[in-house]
Amino acid sequence: MAESTKNRVMEIRAGLSHALGAAQVALERALEAREAAEARYQRIVAAATARRRKLAAARDERIHEIESWHDTELAALAGAAAGAADRAAPGAAGEPWHSWEPTPLDRAAELRVGRLILPEAPVPAPSRAARPPAAGRNSDLESRSGDREGRSGDRESRNSDRESRSGDRENWSGGAWAGAPGEVTEAWAGPDSEPPESTAGPVVDEAPPEVPALVRLLDHGHIVVEGDRRAGDDVVAALLLRALGTSVPGQVQIIGYDPENLGGGLAGFAPLATAGVLTFVGPGALDKLLDELVGHVRRINETVLAGEFSSVRELHAATKRRPEPWRVAVLLGGGELSRHQRTQLDRLLRTGAACGVHLVIRGLAVEPGPGIEFVVAAPGDGARIESAGDLPVRLDPAPTSLLMTATCRQIAESVAAGPAPVALDSLLPEAGAEWRESSAAGLTAPLGDSPQGPRVQVTLSDYPPHALIAGPSGTGKTNFIYAWMGALAARYSPDELAFYLLDFKEGVSFARFAPGRRDPSWLPHVRLVGVNVNTDREFGLALLRFLSAELKRRADAAKQHEVTNLAELRAEDPEGAWPRIVAVVDEFQVLLGGRDAVTGEAVDLLEDLARRGRSQGIHLVLASQDVSGIEALWGRPALVAQFSLRIALPRARRVLAETNPAADSLPRYHAVVNADSGAPEANRIVRVPAAGDREQWSALQHRLWRRRPPELGPPRLFDGDVVPRLADSPDYRDLRAGDSTTAPVMLLGQTIDVAARSAQTVLRRAPGRNLAVLGTRTDEACAILATAGRSLAAQFTPAGARFSVVCLDPDARAAAEALHARIPGSGFYLPDDVSWLLEDAAAEAAASWPADRPHFILIYAADALPGGREAADQLRTVLRQGPERRLHVLGWWRGAGLLRDSLGGHASRTDPIGAWVALDVHGSELSPYYPGQGAPNWYPRPWRALHFDRSVHRGAEVIIPYGTA
Ligand SMILES: Nc1ncnc2c1ncn2[C@@H]1O[C@H](COP(=O)(O)OP(=O)(O)OP(=O)(O)O)[C@@H](O)[C@H]1O
């Protein structure tokens, strides 16, 4: 092989080897570059991953912040909404059915129909993704809902129909979390599938409280229920029950129009029908119903709101009174409306709510308008109420029929029982504003509210001057009188008004106005109270006589000042005390009930007082269970005509005009007040407050009592059941010893009179000045002799007069000895030694000169005088001749005939007995001792006596013996 070839080979080899070396180097370099590039790539990937993590963490944190803000905000808003709803629908307006009960409120409330379904906050995905698969979204939600159940347990327990909140979420598709679980996981899977770690803390999961769905009906508007029929029925029932439960029974009245089911739609409310709280109108009566409701609206606008208020709600807010009930007409279907019906319905929709006339409509087309709420009923969460916009509503279930009927029965019962009493305070002026009125022109006071609202004011003046009140027993006459007196007494001071009160009913109803053992206060205006006078008609007469004398005094003063009525007299004589007098006589028929002298005189006096008292400020108020049977009254049309103020309590007869039946339909505790003699057009109905309550009355009386002028003493209390005490008699207390110039006065008992006077007989030195007590009642006879003896003894010093006490009846011995013990220096004689006394006394009586001091012989049972004829003659001598010699016999005979025997028998003269007191002796037996015509009108009654003194009396007077205690 050639060198050159060899060389060439060598060169080629060298070239190849060089190229290989270069390639090797290039490869190494390339590998290095690759390594460097790979390392860089790794670094970049790591950096990107770290940044992504960071971003994810920041994002999670932000999402969490937003979510918890959203949750808190939502919870706060829901809480505020729930709170506002609770305030708007308190008690029966919003309480769930299981714990529901009627709670009448003082204003109209919004009514709950269900609850609003509120949107929930989204649950952040990272926190969900971070949880183990077993705690996936659903179980997560369940656990959260469990949480919420725990926290809102109290609310849940109030609402048994509430389902689990997770169930709500499942049903509602409008929330932000509504996507499928997979979507969330995919969306957040990073390129390296590494689950990002959440830097966010635990989610604040505050469940918003439940927010009730409320609608406004009473005092606001009308409700139209549309949608599902059954659910709609439930809404109507719930609304009505809540409306009934939030108001005072009877204040919501329901009128049902249900042409398709003939009332079946309101069957649960049927118990209300018995009390008139629910009325049904028949299928053809929609016209009439709508016309009637329109009529109510017109009437309420004209007479109740009367331009002063724009709505009953406004009137109620201003006056605290609600004179008209809410009328809720429930119109359940009815098809096409006629033109007239549509017009009337539209009128009601526009104007009814202001007058408390509201419509609940289902099945009639109604256009939206102000105050009209639309409820679209649907089961589940598909319901809506217009005022809540698009928020879904879950309607409450209907109240159970048991709850409905029990509630309605209770309401019906309390409506039937009548309205709750109004308090007396409602008639009184503000505390501190009492006694500001002048009675110069009359006495005006409110008596209560009328059903239309305004107060009913009643005036006693020149016209109407007198009042006649009637109502069967128990209908509230006495209460009415109390209320009237309270309203007057609070307005007029005792200088302006004086009361004289008499109650012929058994009991002590007027005694509260006088000081008693338990309560020392009295009503300062009251000057006289007569109670338990049903057997003492004379006391009624005494009052009329007293008023007659007062009338004369006023008429004389008017004449003197040349005026004709009280207003003028007061203007002319501003310093004079001329209060208006109101004399109240309850059950006055007792006074006029007899056919005797008492009735005769009483009617004459009444007629005169009624006729002339009007202008002199003397007003009569006569009350009776039944005026229709009082012959003495109706026999005097001129007398009745003066009583132009007529007050009829429920079922009162004849007190109003014959053509006026208003009292027949009067509810309990109401009265017809008629100032025009009962003419129908003058009727005013008034709801009378309860004034019988002792505590309320005492509060007023004490307030006025503390304001009384210091000089004003307590009224005179005449209680026919109480035995008066001699020691309390002003006449007895005035007696003084030692005045020998005037003839001694013998007190005998208390007269039945306006002033607490004592009956008395003066023992002048003159024939006949002896006293005979007649009758068999030992206690009373002894009481009268004790009074006579003690009162006489009080006028003498021990040496100034001689007293001899003779006891001829062992039954009277204790009393006689007691009297003897009370009169120092008196002699005491029993049957054995009375002859000494008589002998002595007869000689004294027959003497020709008057004794230097009087001698009073008190004989207990003079008819039992021993000693035969001789003693009898001596007694006769003493009786006939003694008084002229200042020797007076005060004897007790146990019968009128026995006294006659002592006087000398049947034909004997009776004039030695100038004064007598009869106990259980009939009037006819007294005629011999009763000069003039016939016998006194006297029927014996316990602890009453008839006193006659022929030297001063025209007729006998009834007296009450003083008790010996
Ligand atoms: N307006 C009223 N509000 C509440 N209670 C009343 C009212 N009027 C009367 N009453 C109550 O009714 C009962 C009977 O009333 P009251 O005694 O006044 O009737 P009367 O007609 O005078 O009956 P009588 O003649 O039998 O005494 C009493 O218990 C009274 O408290």
UniProtKB/TrEMBL annotation:
Domain FtsK: 453-658
Comp. bias (Low complexity): 126-137
Keyword Ribonucleoprotein: no
Residues making up the signal peptide according to the UniProt record: none
Name of the protein: FtsK/SpoIIIE family protein
Start-end of Basic and acidic residues biased regions: 139-171
Lineage: superkingdom: Bacteria
UniProt cross-references to PANTHER family, sorted A to Z: DNA TRANSLOCASE FTSK (PTHR22683:SF41), SPORULATION PROTEIN RELATED (PTHR22683)
Residues annotated as binding ATP: 471-478
Region (Disordered): 123-206
Coiled-coil ranges from the UniProt annotation: 20-47
Gene Ontology molecular-function annotations: ATP binding; DNA binding
Record InterPro entries: FtsK/SpoIIIE/SftA (IPR050206), FtsK_dom (IPR002543), P-loop_NTPase (IPR027417)
Species this chain originates from: Actinoplanes philippinensis
Keywords: ATP-binding, Coiled coil, Nucleotide-binding
